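In this section we walk through a basic example: taking a raw amino acid sequence and producing a predicted 3D structure, encoded as discrete structure tokens. The instruction is simple. Fold the sequence below.
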Amino acid sequence: MKHLLLSSLLVLLLGGCTLCHYDRLKEVVSNSPAPKPIFGDNFNSFLFKTNISIYGKEVSGLLVTKQMAPADYRVIFTTELGLKLFDFEFKDTSFTLHYCVPQFNRPKLLKTIQQDIEILLMSNLDGKPLKNMEDKKGLFTVQQIKMGNFQNYYFTEKASHHIVKIEHSKKRAVKVLMELSEYKDDFPNKVFILHSDINLHIELHLLKK
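The resulting token sequence is shown next.
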């Protein structure tokens, strides 16, 4: 039943995010820079309780995100008993796979998880084409940043000044939806990631920073 409800939610959320979804946004004149990284410009590490559902199979564990140096991030996913499942490093524009268990060692899946983490790190936005918008109800400011053939949309709630949603889109159709909630000290304690073209969703719950 849980998987059925999640699948239905995925269809409703991503199916509704089509051309008319972005037609509800209007461009505004603004000199606002690219949004600040969710993790902050400099941080030590974050620990998340993590659940990954891929093709109906559940994998739970702990995700550690650690900044080794400016623009150098190490991301390690382990079971709660400490068995390493994957170990990624993001440095400037390069990506290194240090380790991966066979169940994750599929090119498309690895590329998808890599992309998700890069979107959350928000470390390569400076200098990218930027368009400032807002929704027609005036509840959110929206920044569209062009990333090659894709666009990232960052929805910031005006009342709280928090990024509450990120959409990774192509040809104005949402491919990845990220919802950020339960903010504390200006950091989201919960991140929920949904995909439209692969049966994958990821839940992150902050345990320690």
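Looking at the output, two observations stand out. The first strand starts at residue 25 and ends at 27. The mean pLDDT is 86. In the next section we compare this with other chains.
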